[in-house]
Specification:
By secondary structure, this protein is mainly α. The protein is 50% helix and 4% strand. Helix 4 packs across helix 9. It starts with a helix and ends in a 14-residue tail after the last helix. It binds 2-acetamido-2-deoxy-beta-D-glucopyranose (4 copies). One 2-acetamido-2-deoxy-beta-D-glucopyranose binds next to helix 3.
Length: 305
């Protein structure tokens, strides 16, 4: 009886002294109780974290594609991390994206690194017959377009020409004058952006050449952040500047002539290659480049660089 009376008294006191602190404590206790038993769900069951390399690739090819994709992830995650760290205060950011907000390029890069990769396939056979379509303008690979939107074909010439990311700033490469597909990593970044599951048909070719991309940043920043070549140039430049040659990089200074004859400096030089087809094709590379970026066809002519 005495105990009961004591509790009633306490209850009375608590309702009289309703201090803000007391109310806050009651609210937080209530929240805790409500959230106590969330049903566990395997929400990402079936998630695919790796790209698929088709059985048409032999071991040698598959290993090189795998390495190239790993390097692409390294290149792209650094591009994302650079923006996350420096935002639009980065001079390199402003150079390529102007005053555009950072969310979109971060999003594309992050999507490539951590987006679901189910069905995204790289193959080495030549199902559409495009690898050898034009002998004088051999292709490095192509997105299969409507024939298989998730699929990319890597043609034999890629293995002879694409460079490892470790070679960043080597072979006379610089960002301004080099081809965006000089490295496996940036070449595969480009190919991935074509896959609608990745680029959503929004990442497109709004500008191609380096000088056009720089101009686009100032005139149409909203397109720069979804321009395939801009995303590649930016990723290459920040990787070179932050990682490969810290504080130096190899941004280069664009010269008009370099874009007209990219093959002269950026293909492995004819004298150093063993393959006759590359040698004979080299003079034609500039015209292949001319087609590159200027066609809306999903079949991209990719002879250069
Ligand atoms: C695998 O592919 C590479 C590059 O296309 C080629 O050089 C090599 O001969 C192939 N290996 C075999 C065992 O067929
Ligand atoms: C950077 O972003 C801030 C915040 O949105 C904005 O106020 C500023 O104008 C931007 N600077 C540039 C150079 O775009
Ligand atoms: C960028 O600058 C242009 C004018 O130079 C302005 O119209 C536009 O709103 C700006 N965009 C952002 C995201 O600040
Ligand atoms: C799709 O397949 C057809 C027939 O094989 C071929 O002619 C066409 O070039 C292919 N398209 C692409 C984008 O490769």
């Amino acid at each position: 009886m005495a105990l009961l009376r004591f509790s009633l008294l306490l209850l009375g006191v608590s309702s009289v002294i309703a201090s803000p602190a007391r109310i806050a404590r009651q609210e937080s206790m209530t929240t805790t109780v409500a959230a106590a038993t969330p049903a566990p769900t395997a929400w990402d069951e079936g998630a695919v974290k790796d790209f698929t390399i088709h059985s048409s690739c032999n071991n040698t090819e598959a290993r090189q594609i795998k390495r190239g994709l790993d390097e692409a992830m390294e290149l792209v995650s650094h591009a994302r991390d650079h923006i996350l760290r420096w935002g639009n205060s980065s001079e390199i950011y402003q150079k390529y994206f102007g005053n555009a907000s950072t969310g979109e390029p971060i999003g594309w890069f992050e999507k490539i690194v951590n987006g679901d990769k189910a069905g995204v396939l790289f193959r080495c056979d030549n199902p559409d017959g495009n690898c050898a379509l034009e002998a004088d303008c051999p292709r490095m690979g192509h997105w299969r377009g409507d024939n298989a939107t998730l699929e990319t074909v890597i043609c034999p010439l890629s293995y002879e020409t694409r460079k490892s990311l470790d070679a960043m700033c080597g072979f006379g490469y610089d960002v301004a004058n080099g081809a965006t597909n000089f490295y496996w990593a940036s070449d595969l970044l480009h190919r991935l952006l074509h896959v609608p599951k990745v680029g959503e048909g929004v990442v497109e070719h709004y500008a191609g050449e380096y000088d056009e991309c720089i101009e686009l940043a100032q005139t149409h920043p909203e397109e720069a952040v979804r321009n395939s070549d801009t995303l590649q140039y930016f990723a290459l430049e920040v990787y070179a500047y932050d990682i490969a040659l810290p504080g130096t990089g190899c941004a280069g200074t664009w010269t008009a002539t370099s874009s007209e004859v990219p093959s002269a400096t950026l293909m492995p030089s004819a004298t150093e290659t063993e393959t006759p087809s590359i040698t004979s094709a080299a003079p034609q590379m500039a015209s292949c480049t001319a087609l590159e970026g200027k066609t809306d066809s999903p079949v991209r002519i990719e002879g250069s660089g």
